[in-house]
Amino acid sequence: MIFVGDGALLWRAVRHAVDGGKTVDMVCTGGRATAPSGLGDLDVRTVDAIGPLGPEIHSACSDGIVWSIDNRFLFGPEVLDGDLTVYNIHGGPLPGYRGLPLATVAHAILNGESEFGATLHRVDPGIDTGPVVAVQRFPIDDEDVFEDVMVELMEACHALFTDHLDAAVDGTLVARPQPDGPSAYYGSKAVAAVPEHRDNPNYERATDLGMFEDFYPDAAAAWR
């Protein structure tokens, strides 16, 4: 299997796969976090785009599975055309919260959501539009701030990976079309629009990044 993504969530998943005896053929990362020690001799590629590696991904992938975890790269036909199955672990329930976790979490709080979750889905040519395998939900309490929800979301994302890894390898995962309902995309424009909601009673909660301030310094500065 091949992993594409970045950060602590990516490397946590890679370690789980390696510790479980799975074959990790390649890790493609943007370099936001370095590989932890103890993972053996992995083929790690630091890249600016995933498309140019398409042929190598197809030839190197021994089980036909690609995992997208905390991944900012978009998959094009270089990867999607062919026999690979690409799974993405998305930071939000679909289709209502497509896009960047920074934006989905902030806007979920602004929108007064009492529940949130992570989604495991197959990747298609759209952005977070592919059929859903599973959703890991958790409540948002009235006093929860951005930091609290993001921590819960990261745990939900990792649980989706660990709970479904073996079934993915066995080829027994079933994906179904995304449920009916409003579809919204929270991308970079939604991040920039957060300060427009200063009059929202949930604004302070939605912008209290806590320990994630260092991870999202631009948002921390703009949202104050």
Description:
This protein is an alpha/beta fold. It has 8 helices and 9 strands. Helix 1 runs parallel beside helix 5 (146-170). The protein has a single domain (2-223), classed as Rossmann fold. The strands form 2 sheets. The chain has a 7-stranded mixed beta sheet. The chain has a two-stranded parallel sheet with strand order 6-9. It has helices spanning 7-19, 54-60, 77-80, 101-110, 146-170, 188-193, 203-206, 217-223; strands at 2-5, 26-29, 44-46, 65-69, 85-90, 98-99, 115-122, 132-139, 185-186.
Essential attributes:
224 residues, alpha/beta, Rossmann fold, seven-stranded mixed β-sheet, two-stranded parallel sheet, 34% helix, globular
Helical fraction: 25-40%
Tell me, what is the CATH class? Alpha Beta
Mean pLDDT: 96
In this structure, how is the largest beta sheet organized? 7 strands, mixed
